Amino acid sequence: MIPRIVCPPWCDRCQVESEDSKLLNELAHAASKSLQDLLRDMRLGHHPNLRDQATDNSQQRTEERNQQLKEAEENLRHRQEELSLSATQELLEGQKWQEVAKKILDDKLRQHLEEEVLSLKTQNEGMNTQDIEKALKQLVDKGYLDLEGGKLKVTPQ
Known about the structure:
This protein is mainly alpha-helical. It has 6 helices and 2 strands.
């Protein structure tokens, strides 16, 4: 557990009770303010308010990815069915099986759909720095934080 840092009397940021104040307090007292370090710290149990928001973002991103994967797999299945039907028709018309197989293997749409499915399947699950950035976006938009090059700075507002 991170020890609670006592703020100097002139610090009025930590005295304010608002929706954003707990998160700002965590960030102001973080030992390191890079997104990578915050991510590491959150995995170790630190920064609970930021971790909660970033976890929600991660879960939402995972749900969106799963929906995209489902759609991509369905599109691939339809394309494979179309190619199979076409191949059957061409074989019945007397085309050589090698030519039909080459046509299926060279199909650009099928290749693209297979690459899309593979890409979606191999995407990292779990929290990442994008989830943290999204969690901090509202505070950046309000002017409480600056975020440049993966480094976080609490503004004097």
